[in-house]
DNA sequence: GAGTGGTCTAGACCACACG
DNA sequence: GTGTGGTCTAGACCACTCA
């Protein structure tokens, strides 16, 4: 009684808290600003820390907050748009885009990948790992699966292991003039390996982009790229910037 | 001491639990099968219920589990591939695709949308809500923003409110031969309104697809579609089925 | 009404970053 | 060392589904 109760369904505490915090972020905080610590925020709102954390998790999922252990919680900058598919479906160039080869190896393709490659389930394929850097930040870790049959000349290449050899494999692929007719995007959680590259904890939400590369009607490679879901907005098509462009000023975040 | 400790970094309890459960799902459970309840699972693994739940949340995020309050936790079927962008970029037909109009109204476009529409910030635009059904299940809720200038003939249309009028607006849009040069995908959480349509709780993870529709170089409409991240894999390009196709049998899930 | 998952509490300790 | 977020516990109660 007396309280203005308009909602028929009283929303849960953490959800309401999320809304309150979101509004506070809009009005009272600048990008990069550090929030009070969780214990203080919880006390301030009169909830248990776990409840507050549930609200913060939501906001982090939405890309509004960034939390780092040992450091604190800061207001996240708007998500960066990363072009995943351009109209000219060229193989993403080694240097035009900020892809950085890590290493090369061979492994049995996972079942899902083997199906796309139309190879035997346990067949050994080449793998190339690389990461994508945007604005000085790792935004994606990619694993490319390449059947030996796609790069027969590779065996003739002598190169040390590591980045150099990875680069050699990528060069071979580029010569093939690959087409990327199909891509799929789904939600996943970062495996420990990817999490390390992306500077996140294992289990962090990621957008998994699976691409089938085709040459002359045959699947020549499959790549599985995991993008940080908190910081990335994947763009497809034309210019690649369906830009939620900020006003001209204010590109820089508070130090 | 004495315990076989091979890992340099001991993984957290819930992450390890996630792995154990994932393996159990692969080997001992069929799609649709109901897991023991959370209290029993927690007891069985000797952890607190909250810890077990953290592991289940991960698996749900990855689309491996489905949890429903009052019912239980079941093994999820593989994600369905939903075609978001086809090579022929036609306006998604009213009936070829399973889009079902809900209602129509007018509202001030949110700032981000207004920017794409190149209209004034607070300007009133038409809105159409519709949901997408695949295999008898709601997979997406969409809100389309249409400036009045894009559908001038609309004022002449007399139609009752609700689905009928929504359909009328969509028909007008179809006549325009819209092109969709740009799309963006990002992670979000379901607002209460969408959550209801999608049969999920507020805050459930969703993939937000923002599309700019263009006719004659001018932005004629913007749609924001939220897809259930747990059940959907978004496909772009060619056939629309970068199908992680199951073996021919076993399309049906256990009742 | 019985049983399920969802929310919430009030603690404790751990892992990490930084001065 | 100090302060941060991350993990974990052992409870309690609530909201929902279904027989």
Describe the structure in your own words:
The structure is a homodimer of 255-residue chains. Chain A is of the alpha+beta class and 255 residues long. Chain A has two domains: 13-75, Winged helix-like DNA-binding domain superfamily/Winged helix DNA-binding domain (Arc Repressor Mutant, subunit A), CATH 1.10.10.10; 80-254, Chorismate lyase (3-Layer(aba) Sandwich), CATH 3.40.1410. Helix content of chain A is 25%, strand content 33%. Chain A has helices at residues 13-28, 38-45, 49-61, 111-117, 163-175, 192-197; strands at 65-68, 72-75, 80-85, 99-108, 124-134, 137-146, 179-189, 205-215, 218-228, 232-237. In chain A, strands 4-5-6-9-8-7 form a six-stranded antiparallel β-sheet. In chain A, helix 2 (38-45) crosses helix 3. The longest helix of chain A has 16 residues, at 13-28. The interface between A and B is large, with 45 and 44 residues.
What labels would you give this structure?
homodimer; about 260 residues; alpha+beta; Arc Repressor Mutant, subunit A; Chorismate lyase; 2 domains; 6-stranded antiparallel β-sheet; disordered N terminus; disordered C terminus; DNA-binding
In a nutshell, what does this entry contain?
The first copy, chain A, is an alpha+beta fold and 255 residues long. Chain A is 25% helix and 33% strand. The first copy, chain A, folds into two domains: 13-75, Winged helix-like DNA-binding domain superfamily/Winged helix DNA-binding domain (Arc Repressor Mutant, subunit A, Orthogonal Bundle), CATH 1.10.10.10; 80-254, Chorismate lyase-like (Chorismate lyase, 3-Layer(aba) Sandwich).
